[in-house]
Design a protein that fits this description.
The complex is a heterodimer of chains A (376) and B (399).
Chain A lengths: L6 H17 L2 H9 L6 H9 L18 H14 L5 H15 L2 H12 L5 E4 L15 E5 L2 E12 L6 E7 L10 E7 L5 E7 L5 E13 L3 E2 L6 H36 L1 E2 L2 E2 L4 H26 L5 H29 L10 H12 L6 H8 L4
Parallel strand pairs in A: 1-4
Antiparallel strand pairs in A: 2-3, 3-7, 4-5, 5-8, 6-7, 9-10
Chain B lengths: L6 H17 L2 H8 L6 H14 L17 H13 L7 H14 L2 H13 L4 E4 L15 E5 L2 E8 L10 E7 L11 E7 L5 E7 L5 E14 L3 E2 L5 H11 L7 H17 L1 E2 L2 E2 L4 H29 L7 H24 L28 H7 L10 H11 L4
Parallel strand pairs in B: 1-4
Antiparallel strand pairs in B: 2-3, 3-7, 4-5, 5-8, 6-7, 9-10
Helix pairs in contact in B: 1-4, 4-8, 5-6, 5-7, 8-9, 8-10, 9-10, 10-11, 10-12
Classes of the chains: A alpha+beta (376), B alpha+beta (399).
Chain lengths: 376, 399
């Protein structure tokens, strides 16, 4: 067992940190988040050129064939930079599903373009009323000659408006919350009957409500077996959940460091705030929360290739803990900044918002606590 | 980065497991497993078995009788020992005074004390805290005044674990009351507990148990050759002692074992006709605790990886102490909650060797409340958790 970075891994972390420092400061990030598109196509091209978009994909598919640790390293740095580019919806979810469930034809059609930064993907899965139940799919897929007709609604689909293709889960069989009967389809964004209601999210990202009103897709739109997509959905979302845990670690660390710096410089009662014992102890509590989050994000990542029960427990342990620890660190960072903490001007509030929304990504703390205990 | 144990570490773990399976006396194992009290002889006999195997002081340098194990192997050894319900080795000789002696002691001290620590011939206790010097240890007032070739010691130590079993005590004493800073006038003395003028009085803790004592010194004459290192440098040695045996401070293995016990109790207890382990609220509490323990385990494993790569142990030990003890306490708290009203009967004899009457309530319930009450000590001893936070704030956060 060795839980320290290899030389390559250290270099990767440093190169991403350098990008954030040189090309992605907080002002740049704010400008990008406020732009019409909501991310920077030039930055995305740069990610492609640096090979980052290919990290999770095999070399046959044109990727780097790196392990999950490389994704963890990338996402932690993205968390530190509060990067808004749609790596998780497009690469990890969209690309991850195609890599896991697609045929050779699917992979060659989509993954090369995805890794080169020429196309964007999204994953439409969660639905209104479904909360975090991963098997909750009410959207219907009816077989017809030459393909399928999709009808239903998908909630809070990140990157949907920018996506060239949205991968949609739909049910051809079974009860609404049954794991069996779910299929995946690649739906071009311009498809007739596909309606999008795009919006900004509170943490500076882009998402949309997606309406499927008799959308017709061909047989080649089907990813994997009819009705058999659930294990793939679970495995791919587990990878994405581990990745946002790593992102949360970066966000938490940045918040903690920024808050510590503030405590050392802000003077009240004639001395730095950091000289007050009550604030010292709370700073240590934040440090402990960050260290534990890092430990569990690492544990989740290292268990992604293990069998399903182990993987599930590890990922849910991390997500449950980080949901709670992240809330605590975020709230403390705002509180210890005093009134400045609730201003839009400081970056603290923006990191706090991202951290808070990470908790809602494929299941919050309570959901994953239940899943960890084996009851989801 | 790799989560799997190396084949060498797996083989090591198997070797430890086999040894524990064949060498741990069944009666001692049973008593540890059921949370019953251990006597001095129980600890001593396990100490002797480990000594004969050569495993009693894994962290010592090989020259002095250590095993030469890596930090990871020491971790695995601790984990396997806990899983097998082996008693802990009393830390005062092996983990505390031993390293001070082999690092700062004279040749004569090494020759005289180290073999007897390893063999278990000498039992040690620690004379640090005083009635007026708890968290503020440097304010200690026990005096040692030089008189020819002896120090004359007067004062009182308290919270002295196992003083009633010990042959020797290592003490922080004040040799220079006029030093500029309180830390500068302290020396580190080794004192024979049989010396005239020493009196040990038990302190009974809230669980009804006797682990700790007051130790009184009245004109106790200690040969000057029992001074470790230099006079007035004792604080340095005391700090070294605190930093030496950091591995295992989180006691992850023992907490895993205790958590497994809690789960067994929750499965046996009924709530509304169903096992308590199926009660949503209780299940959630156990799940949250188990995740906390995983976080602790991986925080320790990360620290071990850094040590295996040659980095010096840092201040992570403070964090491990804080979280380790909080988790231990939480396990005792949920165990108390799990046994319900059978936490009430107070029959201390039931925890002692040789008691064979019908238990009141389930057998596992007898130790739950005493253990909960006793274990409040964990966040207080070894530098209270608040002191630990102060150290982290100063040394890590530089506040």
């Amino acid at each position: 067992m060795d839980l320290s970075y290899s030389e390559d891994q250290t270099l990767l972390a440093e190169s991403i940190a350098r990008f954030i420092q040189n090309d992605y400061d907080f002002e740049t990030r704010s400008r990008i988040a406020g732009s019409d598109l909501g991310f920077d196509p030039a930055a995305w091209k740069q990610f492609a050129a640096l090979g980052w978009l290919g990290i999770p994909f095999s070399e046959e598919a044109g990727g780097l064939g790196a392990d999950a640790v490389a994704v963890m390293i990338l996402m932690e740095q993205f968390g530190r930079g509060l990067v808004v580019e749609p790596y998780v919806p497009s690469i990890l979810l969209g690309g991850g599903l195609i890599a896991a469930a697609g045929t050779e034809a699917h992979r060659s059609r989509y993954l090369g373009d995805l890794i080169a930064g020429r196309i964007q993907l999204a994953f439409g899965h969660g639905e209104p009323g479904g909360r975090y139940a991963l098997a909750h799919v009410a959207t219907r897929a009816e077989a017809r000659a030459g393909g399928f007709t999709l009808t239903g609604r998908k909630a809070v689909v990140h990157n949907a408006a920018a996506a060239d293709f949205i991968i949609v889960s739909a049910r051809s069989d079974g009860e609404v919350r049954a794991p069996e009967g779910i299929s995946l389809f690649v739906v071009p964004r311009g498809s007739s009957g596909l309606g999008l209601r795009p919006y900004r999210t509170i943490d500076g990202l882009r998402a949309a409500e997606v309406e499927l009103d008799g959308v017709e897709v061909g047989e080649d739109a089907l990813l994997g077996e009819v009705g058999g997509a659930y294990p793939t959905v679970e495995a791919v979302t587990d990878r994405a959940v581990a990745a946002v845990c790593a992102e949360a670690v970066g966000v938490m660390d940045l918040l903690r460091e920024t808050t510590l710096e503030y405590l050392k410089t802000r003077q009240q009662f004639g001395r730095p705030l950091g000289t007050f014992q009550v604030l010292q102890h709370r700073s240590v509590d934040m440090l402990i929360a960050c260290e534990e989050a890092r430990s569990l994000a690492l544990m989740a990542t290292l268990n992604l290739d293990r069998t399903s029960p182990e993987r599930r427990r590890a990922v849910s342990a991390a997500k449950a803990h980080i949901g709670t620890a992240g809330r605590k660190v975020g709230q403390e960072a705002v509180q210890l900044h005093g009134g400045m903490g609730v201003t839009d001007e400081l970056k603290v509030g923006h990191y706090f918002k991202r951290l808070t929304m990470i908790d809602t990504f494929f299941g919050d703390s309570a959901h994953h606590l239940d899943r960890f205990a084996g009851h989801v | 980065m790799n989560i799997e144990l190396t084949s060498a570490d797996r083989a090591f773990r198997d070797e430890v497991r086999t040894f524990l399976g064949t060498s741990l006396p069944p009666d001692i194992k049973r008593r540890v497993e059921n949370g019953l009290e251990l006597g001095r002889e129980d600890y001593a006999s396990w100490h002797r078995i480990l000594y004969e195997k050569g495993w009693v002081a894994p962290a010592w340098p090989v020259d002095h009788g250590g095993t030469g194990w890596t930090p990871m192997q020491r971790y695995l050894y601790d984990e396997e020992s806990a899983a097998a319900s082996a008693p802990r080795i009393m830390p005062f000789g092996v983990n505390m005074v031993g390293p001070v002696i082999f690092t700062f002691g004279s040749a004569a001290q090494k020759a005289r004390y180290l073999p007897r620590i390893l063999s278990g011939e000498d039992w040690w206790c620690q004379g640090y805290s005083e009635p007026g010097a708890g968290s503020d240890l440097a304010s200690l007032r026990t005096r040692a005044v030089r008189d020819g070739d002896v120090y004359v010691v007067n004062g009182q130590k308290t919270w002295t674990t196992s003083a009633h079993w010990a042959d020797q005590i290592f003490c922080l004493v004040r040799t220079d009351p006029d030093a500029a800073k309180p830390q500068q006038g302290i020396s580190f003395l080794l004192i024979d507990m049989q010396s005239p003028g020493i009196e040990v009085k038990p302190i009974i803790t809230i669980d009804g148990g006797h682990e700790v004592n007051d130790v009184f010194f009245e004109d106790v004459r200690v040969p000057v050759e029992n001074l470790v290192g230099e006079e007035n440098r004792g604080w340095t040695y005391a700090k070294f002692l605190l930093s030496f045996e950091r591995a295992g401070i989180a006691d992850v293995g023992r907490s895993k074992k205790q958590l497994a016990g809690l789960k067994r109790i929750a499965a046996a207890e009924l709530s509304d006709g169903r096992p308590l382990s199926e009660d949503d609220r209780f299940r959630e509490k156990i799940a949250a605790l188990e995740i906390d323990l995983l976080a602790l385990e991986y925080t320790e494993l990360r620290a071990l990886s850094r040590q295996n790569a040659g980095e010096e142990p840092g201040t992570e030990a403070n964090i491990l102490k804080i979280r380790g003890t909080e988790i231990q306490q939480r396990i005792t708290e949920l165990t108390l909650e799990a046994v319900g009203s059978y936490a009430n009967p107070y029959v201390p004899e039931a925890l002692k060797d040789g008691w064979n009457e019908e238990p009141i309530g389930p057998e596992y319930a007898a130790g739950a409340a005493p253990r909960y009450f006793n274990w409040r000590k964990a966040s207080i001893y070894g530098g209270s958790n608040e002191i630990q936070k102060g150290i982290v704030a100063k040394l890590v956060l530089e506040l």
